[in-house]
Amino acid sequence: MPELPEVEVTRLSFAYRIAGGKVLSASLGKALRWPLGCACNQLLGRVVVGVRRRGKYLLVDLDEGLLLLHLGMSGSVSFAEQLPPKGVHDHFELVTSHGTLRLHDPRRFGAVVFARSEDAPEAQKLLGRLGMEPLTDQFDLAQFQDQLKLRRAAIKQVLLAGNVVVGVGNIYASESLFAAGIRPTLSAARLSRPRVAKLHAAIRTVLANAVAKGGSTLRDFSSATGESGHFQLSAMVYGREGQACRVCQSPIKTLRQGQRSTFYCPTCQKA
DNA sequence: CACGGATCCTGATGGC
DNA sequence: TGCCATCAGGATCCGT
Question: Which residues of A143-161 are buried (b: 16+ CB within 10 A; e: fewer)?
Fold first, then answer.
């Protein structure tokens, strides 16, 4: 479910409200992708200092240590003073004096991991190999060009891998490549510098636009306050196989890359 | 190191 | 209605 825009929309929807809250209780349900890395009662009394995002991770900063939350494919976060009773797929809960943070994740590809600090090995294991943040100045064009030169794989797969640039998942990889007019199957290393520059700008525009639209709600994404996103309504290619391209009217095509669907316009996206 | 494929898990959907 | 196959917003691990 969640790519960078959905994670950022989630963050924006609860960060300012949870900040300052003191942890009153914490509980875990079924196992997520990795163990929490501490006993739940070690979190008692901690104060939530703020919530940041790195790639698709939410970093819940505590006065001592931090929690790394990942939503996997099907995760979502709720935050409210009072939440409805726990359901079968609610696997983590942090009750604070400002409200309750809950992670709902049917497929359990998500994770909650405690780390003593961002630099600690348990955090670096998850964050250490992440690529550049696309919506910050860290996303340097020259560096992007240099790094793509080292990758022979298809540009779509390089974007998804997250070790060059983070946060671009299956929806926004297709959308960004459409915006840049690039065929998803092209080898990253063979893209001309001007085309990479176009892609660099496209990624930023597409992601920023998606955040502004509240993310994409395909089946069940909503922010921590329950708001649906509506980026999917303006998607140019994702989920539009067979429909007319919004620019040139050609039917949108689909293909499989690394067991994921890719959508593209055969006319607008040049080989 | 870079690459492609298998893998974790549950639920929705479509064909027969 | 049931059963089976396929697909779904991710990312790690493993063999080459």
Answer: ebbebbeebeebbbbbbbb
